[in-house]
């Protein structure tokens, strides 16, 4: 007779699956309130800690909003909320060298694609926004914190050009996950000017409408930046 491995799941996981199904199937629609904790306890036959654990998990999934003193409210998940929930996982990934390399490959693929798309599709308003962002970046040379902020802003304009909220959410999440890397690299004298020059080359290629050059300029920029970061971290470990 065949033997089967039966997986034992936590009660809260079972509650999550059922409520998630009810939300995704729009039994509960965005804006609706879920039943009270007491009603959910009776419905599922579990205690308050189990219900609260399930609700906290649904909040992290971007499916409900929780507020003290009121019932959980169903919300429509956004790309930003979904990606923000990965922050803890990404922290672990970036804590080791292999994870950093994998992330760098993913970032380069994404950023180069944004530059390539901009070169092929950017309109006059997009080009103007990039020039404004580049000028702001140039004005902050010598101010590490402000340069980092305007550096991020320049890259973000590229992510807005496709007019797809997923791309801007991916950019914002990556910028958050890369905060330490940018800070470490910009501590080195002259790195802000090197980054600014790279941004200028990227914009020149986009303005010319040259996707290949924009892709290449972005990859060179990111490789140089990552190389500085790796050397700094390697020096700390020695």
Describe this structure in words.
- The chain is mainly α and 238 residues long.
- Helices cover 72% and strands 2% of the residues.
- The chain is built from 12 helices and 2 strands.
- A hairpin with a 7-residue loop joins β1 (64-65) and β2 (73-74).
- The termini are far apart.
CATH architecture classification name of the largest domain: Up-down Bundle
Q: Major β-sheet, in short? A: 2 strands, antiparallel
Percentage of residues assigned to helices: over 70%
CATH class label of the largest domain: Mainly Alpha
- The portion of residues forming beta strands comes to under 5%
Give me the number of helical elements: 12
Average pLDDT, all residues: 88
CATH superfamily of the largest domain: GntR ligand-binding domain-like
Q: In total, how many beta strands?
A: 2
Arrangement of strands in the largest sheet: 1-2
